[in-house]
Design goal:
By secondary structure, this protein is an alpha+beta fold. It contains 4 helices and 2 strands; from the N terminus they run H-H-E-E-H-H. Strand 1 and strand 2 form a beta hairpin. The longest helix has 17 residues. The protein is extended, with a radius of gyration of 19 Å.
């Protein structure tokens, strides 16, 4: 007698299958941008941008009222995709949203030079 299929058990136990692993640089960057925007949505003020690590796209401290914002994936900053903005939550959010639009408009071919640079 055959038992239930894996799909039936997944449905029965209400497991949400994880989305496909992001593979190309564009997909990785989009996933990271979305993660940054989700994190920023939790914040109420600029002081929450401060930290002691660079796990986010914004610098952990501001300098002279400015904060560096850099797109990164794979633990490395994307060359040329960094800027300094006012140290305000709206400025940081707007910059990351702009980065996301740029990434969305790109293709994996757009990132070929960055991928090649990372191999060195």
């Amino acid at each position: 007698m055959a038992g239930p299929t894996l799909e039936e058990l997944i449905k029965e136990f209400g497991i949400e299958p994880a989305s496909t692993q992001t593979s190309g640089p564009r997909a990785k960057l989009l996933a990271q941008a979305d993660r940054m925007l989700t994190e920023l949505a939790k914040y109420k003020g600029e002081d929450e941008l401060d930290g002691d690590t660079t796990r986010f796209w914004w610098a952990p401290q501001s300098v002279n009222g400015k904060r560096r914002v850099s797109a990164r994936y794979g633990g490395k900053v994307v060359q040329g995709l960094s800027t300094t903005v006012d140290n305000t939550l709206p400025s940081v959010r707007a910059t990351i949203e702009t980065f996301r639009k740029l990434i969305e408009k790109s293709t994996d071919d757009t990132w070929a030079a960055e991928e090649e640079r990372r191999k060195k």
